[in-house]
Amino acid sequence: MKTGWFLLLSAAIIFSSCQASNQTESIESESTLDEFEESIKMIPIQTPKGEFNVFTQRVGDNPDIKVLLLHGGPGMTHQQYSNFIDFLPQEGIEFIWYDQLGSAFSDQPSDSTLWTIDRFVNEVEQVRVALGLNKDNFYLYGQSWGGMLGIEYALQHQENLKGLIISNMMASLDDYEKYAKEVLGPQMPQEVFAELMEIEKNNDFENPRYMELLGEHHYPYHVLRKPADQWPAEINKMMGEMNPEVYVYMQGYSEFGITPGASLEGWDRKADLKQITVPTLVIAGTHDTMDPAHLEWMSEELPNGQFLLCPNGSHLSQYDDPEHFFPGLISFLKEVDKKED
Question: Which ranges carry the AB hydrolase-1 domain (predicted)?
């Protein structure tokens, strides 16, 4: 890796993570920059279309608790978890930022045949092996699409897991769409929801009114419960760096379900949750785009499931309800670790 690339990367992450000034100053020091560079690992991934590289960065060092973070989207970035650095290292918990193929600092090939669930599961397994993670230390955390990917990984490779965290993700996309259209949508002013549904009916997603209405009536209530001008810089940066090719191919354009024809259409793992036997924490936000009652039900279906409700949280509960999110997550990680001793 060229030093200039690392300097650019470090500047970007420093800017987006809202760390205290003394942390920024230490990162800028030569010794800490060396450690920063050493914590980054570009991992070669084998795919049906050849070899590509994906970005990972380790934060902390704990031989017993290593949490690999699966971001959402598909096509979002690891910056979704920038504020984890403000909570987990202080508890001695190691975590790993990771950009999936097609995202941010990882390679971004333009080939839709790569955007399948099974290929992403295979990618996660290759990342696990490259990082030396195993059943004695490997916790997999996934939020939104990352939660879906976490479920799929566990169904294929749970023998490698010490614990699983499914955050803000229902086990059925049809149920998600029903909740969005029958519960969340009608909470908007009637004329606003009607206009949004008309835009969707006409497949007119390039209409600027669609994002305008969502930005005023949906995102600040169910994605991150803060006014848009108060959203963290790292989340705005993540949204700006989303890979639309991956996102649209797999999910589509709609914010009220999966666009017909998108590759994730019809995904449903409700009947398979009982097969996941590793300790699993399911996290929900009261104001989430995902039905918290469904997520609580998921925790009951999982043989070793636990449920964490963030009462002030939405889809990004780590930002709008950190007071409940992080203590609950940390407690789960330490509890599982203690039982394994």
Answer: 67-322
Tell me if residue 315 is catalytic.
Answer: yes
Active site (annotated) includes residue 218: no
The answer to whether 290 and 283 are in contact (CB under 8 A) is: no
| Active-site residue (options: 78, 222, 287, 315) | 315
Burial degree of 51 (CB within 10 A; 0-12, 13-18, 19+): exposed
State how far the alpha carbon of 210 is from the alpha carbons of 181, 183, 213, 329, 337, in Å. Answer: 15, 19, 5, 35, 46
The pLDDT score that the predictor gives to residue 339 is 85
Q: What's the confidence (pLDDT) of residue 232? A: 94
Q: Confirm whether 294 is a catalytic residue.
A: no
- Rg (alpha carbons) of the chain, rounded to whole number: 19
C-alpha to C-alpha distance for 239 and 288, rounded to whole angstroms: 18
**CA neighbor of 70 nearest in space, from 132, 4, 127:** 127
Give the residue numbers spanning the domain of 13. 1-38
Residues 108, 206 within the same domain: yes
16 and 85 assigned to the same domain:
no
- Total number of domains in the chain: 2
The active-site residue, picked from 16, 82, 144, 172, is: 144
Catalytic residue among 64, 288, 291, 321: 288
CATH assignment at residue 276: 3.40.50.1820
Cα dist from 341 to 139, 151, 337, whole Å: 15, 25, 7
pLDDT on residue 18? 38
126 with 238, same domain: the answer is yes
